[in-house]
Amino acid sequence: MYKLYTRPGSGGFVVEAALAMAGVPFEQIDVPKKETPDPAFLAISPLSQVPALTLPNGHSLTESAAICILLAERHPEAGLAPEAGSPGRADFLRWMAFMSSVLYPAVLRLYYAHRYTADGEGLRPVKQAAVAEMDRGFAILDQALAGRDWLAGETLSLADIYLVMLVAWHPEVERARNAWPNIERLWARLRGNELMRKLNATHEMWA
Questions:
Q1: Looking at residue 35, what is its pLDDT?
Q2: Listing from the earlier edge strand, what are the strands of the sheet with 52-54?
Q3: Mean pLDDT, residues 21-34 taken together
């Protein structure tokens, strides 16, 4: 059985969605934020970050994008990603890598600015630069969605859920909805999705 280490409002949102869509049993373990990390959890997630996933064979995996890609490969029947070899698969891998390397780090710099500067007075410029980087990344993704229903392939994939999770963390949500209408169109569709509504009741990603 899978074991998902997570907490409400975290990147575990998309992994929980993936496991639910795959229809596989999993044990959910909520990891509270602590000043001193739990040594047992550090053995699973060296940065003491969620989400982390322990596979049925006992191997543990961190990084939400990597977990999503692995689950899509392990459960192809669930349609978590476009099929291997399809044009949509290339888009899926591209955008998952883009979001995890550009947008997710910017989110972390915004909400954990103290980790990114040794100057105690320098938090504000770190946060300002983080929001600017988020805006740049979302603008690129909004353009990628122009004339398309989904970010990768012809049906919903984990890339769409990953994107919606990230944009929900934008510090100015109403501005985000107006600035990127294609992302908002996708987000509105997912806000009406039964599974997304169920997950949001726990994670409170959006109002």
A1: 79
A2: 26-30, 2-6, 52-54, 60-62
A3: 95
- At 47, list the tokens: 């940065």
CA angle 15, 18, 22 (to 5 degrees): 145
Instruction: Record the tokens describing residue 177, joined without a space.
Output: 């909805």
How do residues 63-77 score in pLDDT, each as one tens digit?
999 999 999 999 999
**Strands of the chain, DSSP E:** 2-6, 26-30, 52-54, 60-62
Contact between 6 and 202 (Cβ < 8 Å): no
Encoded tokens for 190:
């997912």
Domains and CATH numbers, the chain: 2-78 (3.40.30.10), 87-194 (1.20.1050.10)
Contacts for 87 with CB less than 8 Å, ≥ 6 apart: 153
Band of residue 144 on the pLDDT scale cut at 50, 70, 90: very high
